[in-house]
Amino acid sequence: MLQTMLSSEVMTKAAERLMKLLPYKKHSDIIKRAWQLYRTGHVYNVTIEDNVLKGKVTDKGHTYEPSFRLKQAAGSSCTCTTVGLCPHNVALFLYAYNQIDAVGNLIRTWKEPATKRKKAESNEKQKDVQVKQQTVQQQKLNEKNRSNTSNNANIVDAWWQSFEEKYRRIPLYNITEEEHMRRLVQSFFPTFERPTSKASFLDHLYYVHAALFTFIKLVHIPQKSWGYFAIMQERHVEQFSSTVQQALINLAKKPRTKSHEQLLYATIPYVRNVLSGELTYFRQILDVYEIIWTTVLTDETYRQEECTWAIEQLNKKQTVEEKIPFIGAASYVSFLLENDHRAYQLIEPFPYLATEHIVRFMHMSFAKKQIQRGVEWFHRLEQNVETYLYSLHITEREWFVQHVLSAYVQYRIATKNEQTERYEQLLQKLLPYSFYTYIDYLFDEQKWKELIELYMLEKTTVDMIHPLHLKAVEQADRSLVLPLYHQTIMHYIEQKNRSAYEQAIKHLRKLRAHYRALKQMPRWETYITKLAEQTKRLRAFQDLLRKGKFI
Fold first, then answer.
1. What is the rounded distance in angstroms from the CA atom of residue 438 to the CA atom of residue 435?
2. Are 404 and 355 in contact (CB under 8 A)?
3. Per the record, where are the segments of Low complexity compositional bias (predicted)?
4. Which residues contact 542 (CB under 8 A, 6 or more apart)?
5. 3-class SS at 60?
6. CA 202/CA 200 separation, integer angstroms
7. Full-model pTM
């Protein structure tokens, strides 16, 4: 996941360098174009490696592959061959920046004059000093608490009590749900200074608890049903989910002592509170819950206890909506315990949950070089593919097909086995939602007969087919396109208007040329005679047939 690999500090500094390299007043055309490309979804397949962003950007019908160096923006490049930074580089950066903060905030800052921005940065530094002093005082208080008590759970409880007291001081009267979230993310949480990599385990754990507290508050705020505020709420939760995950990844890198393990055990009840959030944020909730149990809570005893607890909770719940979070939790922890049978049994009846979990479990198995385990997970998905597809809402089926085909690619790479027949069977099972992918596959494999049959099955006309596909089939075997032209001609005749008749006549000329090239003119004469008889009541079409000298 991209957001888990991005450092907020690196991204912020990269943004500062970019604003200096491209002052808004002089380069507004580049920035506006980049902003437009990003907002309209033209940036995709974004990855990061060694602090270099790479991805693809479609612009005016062309696809470019920019790369953006986060620590040396001036050295970025793009296949569009522009000298220096281009809109594609900047659009790529905006896509990545959105994972840590709203791009709109960056654009507003960019537009500000440099002098005003420097003054704001100076004020921020002064605030940071004050926050750091407060944090030092808090840490001293924590040290005092630790020396005065032998119960580690009390330390964690004290942290959460202090978070709650600070939270109550936020002015929340008569504000929208979105503004409530904004204040949590932009005003409340920043008061907890992010620890450096050299900070102690305890400092990182304290920061993780502050992040968890904020996240739990966020996911308990109901989401608006639709509109701008609903979109912004989703974005706040998604972006802060990345913040929590990064904090957990940083914590997992720190060495632990026995007392630290006791503190982690005392953390578990607070982690469980994440599962009680609004179901509309279910994906983000599971992301946070799962990464905790993957990276930090790695003790097998803890995991066994957690799995038992989650199963007990789901058995107590009455409705499916109440059970779902605990099913997802129990299944994931079961997988970590390598109890794949139980992990699958829990999720198998729920198509959406099962699809995401099975693909994730397969990917994790392959990443651990557990090839056979990953293969078994793919087989579980494969055997349920049609059942899951048609049990999902129609709006979710495209997502499902893309997920399944992406899983097959991972499976093929891991097993180093192309198995084209198996892939084709999968594409057939996923029709009609796999139509375009299947078309491309048949074209690449030069299965011309099957290609035409698929086009006809979907009632495609000649005009809807890519000219490259049509030309390739005609060159390979001209006779294969004859039924397609028959179907196209009838499609236009059935519309019963003059412009459609003219289209039918155009394709009749092409069809006659194909019959002539195949030296099958008797078949053509039989066909055109029969067509003229069938359409004898359509006077306008009959006139065009006579003018075209077909009859």
1. 5
2. yes
3. 131-140
4. 532, 535, 536, 551
5. coil
6. 5
7. 0.61
- The residue assigned the tokens 């086995």 is 417
Higher pLDDT, 535 or 174: 535
Q: Is residue 118 over pLDDT 60?
A: no
Distance from chain centroid for Cα 466: 29
Any long-range contacts for 59-63 (C-beta under 8 Å, 24+ apart)? 59/87, 59/88
- Please tell me the predicted confidence (pLDDT) of residue 122: 53
As to burial, measured by CB atoms within 10 angstroms (0-12 exposed, 13-18 middle, 19+ buried), residue 417 is exposed
User: Of residues 489 and 148, which shows the higher confidence score?
Assistant: 489
H or E element that contains 59: strand 52-59
Q: What is the mean pLDDT of residues 193-219?
A: 93
Q: What is the mean pLDDT of residues 514-534?
A: 92
Reported as a pLDDT band with limits 50, 70 and 90, residue 394 is confident
3-state secondary structure of 447: coil
Q: Which residue has the tokens 């198509």?
A: 351
In this structure, the chain runs to a length of: 551
Q: What is the pLDDT of residue 6?
A: 75
Pick from 214, 203, 217: nearest CA to 263: 203
Burial class (CB in 10 A: 0-12, 13-18, 19+), 174: exposed
Supply 146's token pair.
Answer: 């630790």
DSSP 296: T
pLDDT of residue 145: 44
Amino acid 335 reads F
Residue burial 331-340, b: 16+ Cβ < 10 Å; e: rest: bbbbbbeeeb
Buried b / exposed e along 223-238 (16+ C-beta atoms within 10 A): bbeeeebeebbbebbb
Among left, alpha and beta (phi > 0; psi -120 to 50; other), residue 545 is alpha
- Using an 8 Å Cβ cutoff, are 371 and 414 in contact? yes
- pLDDT value, residue 25: 86
How confident is the model over 489-495, as a mean pLDDT? 92
pLDDT at 242: 94
Which pLDDT score is estimated for 39?
80
Contact indicator for 102, 113 with CB cutoff of 8 Å? no
User: CA 314 to CA 330: how far, in whole Å?
Assistant: 9
Quick one: tokens of 484?
A: 């397609």
Checking 515-521 for CB contacts under 8 A at 24+ apart, the result is 515/482, 517/478, 518/478, 518/479
Cβ–Cβ under 8 Å, residues 127 and 135: no
SS3 of residue 228 by DSSP: helix
Residue type, 505: I
Long-range CB contacts for residues 341-344, cutoff 8 Å, separation at least 24 = 344/380
- CA–CA separation, 403 and 44 (whole Å): 16
What would the pLDDT profile of 25-44 be if each residue is shown by its tens digit? 888 889 988 988 888 778 88
Contact 170/183 with Cβ under 8 angstroms? yes
Secondary structure element (H or E) that encloses residue 343, with its range: helix 340-347
Where is 359: in which H helix or E strand? helix 351-367
Judge whether residue 290 has pLDDT over 80.
yes
Distances (CA, A) of 324 to 381, 391, 404: 19, 17, 22
